[in-house]
Amino acid sequence: MWSNSWRLPVNSTGSNLPELPATPEIGLPLWLLAELTYRCPLQCPYCSNPLDFAQQGQELTTEQWKQVMRQAREMGAAQLGFSGGEPLVRQDLAELIGEARSLGYYTNLITSGIGLSEAKIEAFKQAGLDHIQISFQASDEEVNNLLAGSRKAFAQKLEMARAVKAHGYPMVLNFVTHRHNIDQIDRIIELCVALEADFVELATCQFYGWAHLNRAGLLPTRAQLERAERITNEYRARFEAEGRKVKLIFVTPDYYEERPKACMNSWGNIFLTVTPDGTALPCHGARQLPIAFPNVREHSLQHIWYDSFGFNRFRGYEWMPEPCRSCDEKEKDFGGCRCQAFMLTGDAAQADPVCSKSPHHGVILAAREEAEHATAPLSDLSYRNERNSRLIARG
Ligand code: SF4
Ligand code: SF4
User: Fold this and answer.
1) Who has the most CB within 10 Å: 74, 93, 208, 286?
2) What class of enzyme is it (predicted)?
3) pTM surpassing 0.90?
């Protein structure tokens, strides 16, 4: 029997350190992200997969994934995302969806649409899939296909977006925006309207994995970002006036914020990611941290979530150095993102440098400044493919 009242030790009094709020109770792993595979036919230069994905271990078997889903459900997981890589390359996807449905999950397939077909959509529907999200690289066929590394990608995505809608799913489209496509935001929104999308996620690139490697070529300027947000707001107002239901979600990149996001709603609190080889992570970017995260092949999820070092490392407030430790905003953002702190300062316990109170905030200001002068063409980006991944892994 698991216990959700397990607590980390609270701050002892008597030290010169500021008194900390009581460490919150550990939440339930409500969201399970199943990264079924790192295989993918596309090569997005902003992919959040690890740079060395090609060197990662063997994928979990169908039965091992079913065990993960069962254990997580017993612990309270309610939402299950099938992601990757491209989850459609797994031949057992319909079987896994069926298992998830029988366990009572709300399921979401996060896909590029490549490898999807009418027959698969039908099979997934029969298996009980609740939700499909298709990602696009751009509204323009040439840019989309260049970024994706496939001459057929755009046409296939359009066809599958229409097919998903025709099968009665809510249409959810995701566009990762960056300096090479954000100026087409109006065309992106128009395309989504033409495809009868119900939800549109305009997610400005966040700089993890391959996006971090390519940051100088992807970070938009402030002017680009402000224009895109203004146009998105104009469309929102127009849709509301016309009584249209399409919902536009605009995600600003951390690099243009002064406070960090409450990453994953705090470490090990709601989100549980399991990677293709069974490594369990508190967020999908955490693999890069110098922490030996546990593997579902060796440990139960119960142990992983409540007792493992990796999942407890940044829970609560005790781990925080200054300026977070005595900051009155720490219960709001938990010091920001541990991966971003590690990538930008070399120390995962630092305040997220996005925060203007961080002594390392200068790296963010420098990146913004660099974006003002960047000229890198699309062809200079480092694309996410097996060859590049192996080269990077070899150093
Ligand atoms: S971001 Fe692009 S390359 Fe990465 S998994 Fe998704 S479709 Fe594949
Ligand atoms: S100092 Fe730390 S806790 Fe305070 S706002 Fe910045 S990141 Fe958040």
Assistant:
1) 286
2) oxidoreductase
3) yes
